[in-house]
Amino acid sequence: MQNELERAAKAVRSHKFVRVISHYDADGITGGFVATKALIRAGLSPHLTMTKSLAPEDLSDYTDAGTKLMIFVDIGASLIDILEEMDTDVIVLDHHRFVSEKDSVIYVNPNRFGLNGMKDLSGSTTALLFALVLDDKNWDLAPFALAGAFGDRQHIGGLSGPNRLIAEQAVKKGLVTIKRQLRLSEKTVYDSILYSPDPFIKGITGRAQQVEEFFRTVHIDGDTEIADMTDDSGDMEMFETSNYINSIITLQLIKQGCEPETLENLVSDVYYTLPGRQNIDDLSSLVNACGRRGKSGLGFELMNGTEGAEAEASALREEHRSLIRSRLIELESDPPEEKEAIQYFYSDEAVINGAVAGIGREYLFNRDKPAFGLAVVAGKVEISARGSTKLVKNGLNLAEVCRVAAEKVGGRGGGHAIASGASIPEGKDEEFLKLADELVKEQITL
Ligand SMILES: [Mn+2]
Fold first, then answer.
1. pLDDT > 70: what percent of the chain?
2. Would you give the distance in Å from CA 33 to the centre of its chain?
3. Which is it for the CA torsion 230, 232, 238, 244, positive or negative?
4. Of 129, 140, 278, 294, whose CB has the highest number of CB atoms within 10 Å?
5. Least confident of 182-191, 226-235, 415-424
6. 186 and 301 fall within a common domain
């Protein structure tokens, strides 16, 4: 991988202008930010575009006479064969499913080098490795890169591989500090349970009256601040409070059928930037919301420290999260349809379906089947599919399911084994679901 990174750095040094194209989720936006910052520092003039998807026919939108170098971040893995045909130099920094390699494309993908693209590196941390090959001074971008990896949920259950090394170095360099604490990201316990859909407490999350009643019944002071309950506070009383809240939430989650993995992750390493002490999970969810609400550029500005960006991003996040909460609350009483091996539901908005499928499967739906969220948008059906580590260990590969099933009905799909997506023509959803059901059945019984 180091060789490929050196090749990338060398290619960059012979250019002045560069088109950077990144994905529009938290990983893509932070990765685009990290790459762009590093390129500016190296004396180049980058032009960054963040996009939801990249079809072969879109590529011409990004090339004009002046474009001699294109860099793809957290996107591009599925298009290597087509990128090879481009008249420009091409660098791809992506961790999605590895399909093929072509000598003319400089292609840094962890899956290509014996690493796990779902856990060991994200698009943004791959972009950080690229930035570091350009200049060691780019270490200050590590917190943003980590926010991207967290956006892809690579820290759940602990970081591994190069991601872990990056975090360790960032701590050593005084850029980041880690605290073991309840994984609630709002300021207070009350806000966390009311606003954050993760963890999702059945019958309570998202409903103020129920949250208040719940806290009264179990004698929890909702105003308790999460930051006060960290492992190094040395305050015995706070330590006990934290344990108590943890056990109450755990009990609730056991009642609603959550798996051990979910319960274990309630307490985890939470990363804060230094200085400033911003919760990196929080940064990640703000950037994610910007992308999902069609304002990727605001995510960039937030990281760049633009005045007012944080307040605007917070408002967008609340807009986005309220849609996710509402859909999950509806699904509590009207659960997904089940086929033999999969479960599925429809939403009006495609952008919330990844989160709804992921959180829903973990906290509300059948834990033994991957969840597919569908939305009919402008003549197409957009699909998000989410599984679990346990299902993947049992053979589930949703990237394969989405790719094969989508292609059979005239669409496109791919992603990761645990989380993937597809876009298919309208009216083909039943056929897609039937194919997906068969594919999952085959994978899990293998
Ligand atoms: Mn990614």
1. 99
2. 15
3. positive
4. 129
5. 226-235
6. yes
**CB 372 within 8 Å of CB 436:** yes
Same domain, 264 and 130: no
Q: Which of 290, 305, 325 is the last residue of a domain?
A: 325
What is the 269 CA–ligand 1 centroid distance (Å)? 21
Residue 50 maps to which CATH number? 3.90.1640.30
What separation in Å is there between the alpha carbon of 333 and the centre of ligand 1? Answer: 32
The whole-number pLDDT of residue 407 equals 97
Q: What is the mean pLDDT of residues 385-396?
A: 95
169 in a domain, yes or no?
A: no
- DSSP symbols for 236-291: HHHHHHHHHHHHHHHHHHHHTT--HHHHHTTEEEEEEETTT--BHHHHHHHHHHHH
Distance in angstroms (rounded) separating the CA atoms of residues 81 and 58? 15
CA of 446 to the centre of ligand 1 (A): 28
Residue 414 within any structural domain of the chain: yes
62 has pLDDT over 90: no
One domain for residues 344 and 269: no
CA of 343 to the centre of ligand 1 (A): 24
Where are the alpha helices (H) located in 154-259, listed in sequence order?
Answer: 161-172, 189-195, 208-218, 236-255
pLDDT given for residue 445 in this prediction: 78
Q: Looking at the structure, do residues 21 and 134 belong to the same domain, yes or no? A: yes
Across the chain, mean pLDDT equals 94
Domain boundary (148, 165, 194) is at: 148
How many domains does one find in the chain? Answer: 3
Q: 96: CA distance to ligand 1 center in Å?
A: 7
Domain span including residue 409: 335-445
Q: Are residues 186 and 319 in the same domain?
A: yes
Tell me, in angstroms, the distance from the centre of ligand 1 to residue 292's CA. 14
116 CA from centroid of ligand 1 (Å): 12
d(CA 293, CA 38): 26
Do 357 and 220 share a structural domain?
no
Report if residue 175 sits inside a domain.
no
CA of 434 to the centre of ligand 1 (A): 28
- Look at residue 425 and tell me if it is in a domain: yes
Q: Average pLDDT in the 124-136 region?
A: 98
**Percent helix, strand and coil across the chain, each rounded to 5?**
50, 15, 30
Same domain for 310 and 349, yes or no, is no
97 CA to middle of ligand 1, Å? 10
Q: What local confidence, expressed as pLDDT, does residue 234 receive?
A: 72
Task: Indicate whether 349 and 302 sit together in one domain.
Answer: no
